Amino acid sequence: MRWLASAALIAAVTAFGYVIPAGAIEVSLECSADFYASGDSVFFTWTNDTDSTIVAGNHPPYDIYHAETGELVCMYAFPMEYHLGPHQVAYLFWDQIDCEGNIVPPGRYIVQIWFVIEVPPPYFLVEDDFIILDTASAPEEGPVSRQTSWGRIRSTFR
Fold first, then answer.
1. Looking at per-residue confidence, does 108 or 10 come out higher?
2. Cys-Cys with 64: which of 74, 118, 139, 156 at CB 3.0–4.6 Å?
3. Positive or negative: CA dihedral 118, 90, 21, 105
4. Across all residues in the chain, what is the average pLDDT?
């Protein structure tokens, strides 16, 4: 009977893949700051220090979640693969707009990228988190990204 359970597990892993934390390989995702003012673009860097091309299923390749609720805030579903070559870096950004076209409220968010190396499985995950501050509570000097961006300009006119 034990072999039946093992066979079922092997079949499930083969059919659906499995996830390995990206810390086991040399791929990283890092936000440019810990805090951002409301309406500013959030910048992050996806780095591939492996000897293989990595592939994400969306373009752009990331998903954004609200950290406290786990709610998917922004996901791009363009059915195009995003390839990041060996020892390359991708500079990405998010304009703080949710899936419905609204500016997200202040809070803590998580950016995630799911990817494969060569032929799946396994699937890998890299993520980082950041906080969006209410503009009134953002310190004048500190770790807040204060770059003027199209997201901030758009939020001024809404």
1. 108
2. 74
3. negative
4. 76
